[in-house]
Amino acid sequence: MRLFKRLYFRQIALVVAFSMFVIGAIPAKSMAYVAGPEAVAASGRAVDMAKVQRVLESRLVADKLEATGLPSAEIMPRIERLTDDELHQFASQLDGLYPGGDGLGVVIALLVIVILVMVIMKLSDRKIIIR
Q1: Opening angle at CA 120, ends 114 and 121, nearest 5
Q2: What is the pLDDT tens value at each position of the chain, 131 positions in all?
């Protein structure tokens, strides 16, 4: 029985290693090759505009803008008058507003690591005892 578990554990380890190799071999921006540069450029303004609108909908940002004397009715017409390059530069600067991110990715990564450790411990007949 113990020999069976060792062989099973080795097979699982090989499958996981091979899967990680295959996933790592895929280029990160592979869909950009499929869509073409025209489609990417056309959707760039829409993506930037959505990012700016999402930040402007934040209550804290709206309060700061109103405190400086810029009413919310004037904000969107001014942003729509920006050129594509200016809008992209403004949207890329908005990424710095949330330097820590939302933390969801970190939480998911920690949960995956904990689950992997628990599965490996279970497969190797080890027990975690917390006293």
Answers
A1: 90
A2: 677 677 788 889 999 999 988 888 877 666 555 555 555 555 677 888 888 888 777 777 778 878 888 877 788 888 888 888 888 888 888 766 665 556 777 888 899 999 998 888 888 888 777 77
